[in-house]
Write a structure and sequence with these properties.
The protein is of the alpha/beta class. The protein is built from 6 helices and 8 strands; from the N terminus they run E-E-E-H-E-H-E-H-H-H-E-H-E-E. The strands form 2 sheets. The chain has a 5-stranded parallel beta sheet with strand order 5-6-7-3-8, with helices on both faces. A 3-stranded antiparallel beta sheet has the order 2-1-4, with helices on one face. Helix 2 crosses helix 3 and helix 3 packs parallel to helix 5. The model has no long low-confidence stretch (mean pLDDT 88). Bound molecules: adenosine-5'-triphosphate (ATP). This is ABC transporter ATP-binding protein.
Length: 232
C-alpha cells in the first residue's frame, strides 16, 4: 500500500524579495519549503543573506514582495501584533549575540519568553528546570545576572529561552563561534537531542562546515536565492 500521508510544511516561501534599501536587493527566493520536523544546516558566504533570511522567518523583518507561510499561518501578512504573538508561541530564535537582557537573572530572562507567549509561568516552571538541567546549567546560576555568565553559559541560556515554549520551529544563527571543539560537540548533541524530543523543525546557520555532520540535510543559501546584490 502506498504511503499517501503528505508531510505538513513548517515553512513555505513564495516569490520573496527583500532589500534593506531601495538600491540593493538582498534576497530573492522564488520558492522554498521546509517540512515539519526537518533539521537543516544553512550555510553560504559571508553577506549572502543567511541572517536576513532568519530575520524574515522570525518576522522581525517583513518581505517587500511575496509571502512567508509558517505552519498554517500566512505569517508575513499578519499584523505586527499577531506576528509577535505567533512568534512567541511557535518560533524560537537564538541570535548570534544571544540578545539576553544582561542585568536580568537567568531565570527572569527565560521567564520573559513565557510571559510574552501568554502562558502561565506556574505550568512552565517544571519544564524550565528540566531544560536548564538538560543544558547543564546548574540551578545555582538561575539567580545570577546573565552578564555574569561565561559565553558558553550565556549561549545555553539563550537556547533555554528559545525552547521554553516548546516551539514548532527553532532558528539558530551561528551560536558556536566562541566555543572550543569539545564544547561545540556537547552543545550540538544536546541541541539536536532536545529538538528531536520536541519534534522541532530546526534551521541552523553556521560558517563552521564541520557541524554539517549533525544534520541530515545541508543547504547553501545560493541554491534557493535567485539573485543577490551585496550592498555597498
Ligand atoms: N540592518 C541592515 N541594514 C542594511 N544592510 C544590511 C543590514 N543587515 C545586513 N545588511 C546587509 O545585507 C547583506 C546580507 O547580510 P546578512 O547578515 O544577512 O548576511 P549573512 O549571510 O548572515 O552574513 P554572515 O555570514 O557574515 O553573518 C549584507 O550585504 C549586509 O551588509
Amino acid at each position: 500500500m502506498s504511503n499517501t500521508v503528505t508531510q505538513k510544511m513548517a515553512i513555505t516561501i513564495e516569490n520573496l524579495k527583500f532589500a534593506y534599501n531601495k538600491k540593493n536587493l538582498q534576497l530573492s527566493i522564488p520558492n522554498w519549503q521546509l517540512k515539519t520536523g526537518e533539521r537543516i544546516f544553512l550555510y553560504g558566504d559571508s553577506g549572502s543573506g543567511k541572517s536576513t533570511l532568519l530575520n524574515l522567518l522570525s518576522g522581525t523583518l517583513t518581505p517587500d514582495q511575496g509571502h512567508i507561510k509558517i505552519l498554517t499561518q500566512p505569517f508575513s501578512d499578519l499584523s505586527e501584533r499577531k506576528r509577535d504573538k505567533f512568534r512567541a508561541n511557535h518560533i524560537g530564535v537564538v541570535f548570534q549575540q544571544f540578545n539576553l537582557i544582561p542585568y536580568l537573572s537567568v531565570q527572569k530572562n527565560i521567564e520573559l519568553a513565557v510571559y510574552f507567549s501568554g502562558r502561565s509561568l506556574d505550568h512552565n516552571q517544571a519544564f524550565i528546570e528540566q531544560i536548564l538541567t538538560r543544558l547543564k546549567l546548574p540551578s545555582s546560576l538561575s539567580k545570577q545576572a546573565a552578564s555574569s555568565l561565561s559565553i558558553g553559559q550565556q549561549q545555553r541560556v539563550a537556547i533555554a529561552r528559545a525552547l521554553v515554549n516548546k516551539p514548532d520551529i527553532l532558528l539558530v544563527d551561528e551560536p558556536t563561534s566562541a566555543l572550543d571543539a569539545n564544547a561545540k560537540d556537547a552543545f550540538m548533541s544536546i541541541l539536536l537531542e532536545i529538538c528531536e524530543q520536541l519534534d522541532t523543525t530546526l534551521i541552523f546557520v553556521s560558517h563552521d562546515l564541520s557541524l554539517q555532520r549533525y544534520f541530515d540535510k545541508s543547504l547553501n543559501i545560493h541554491s534557493i536565492s535567485q539573485a543577490l546584490y551585496l550592498s555597498c
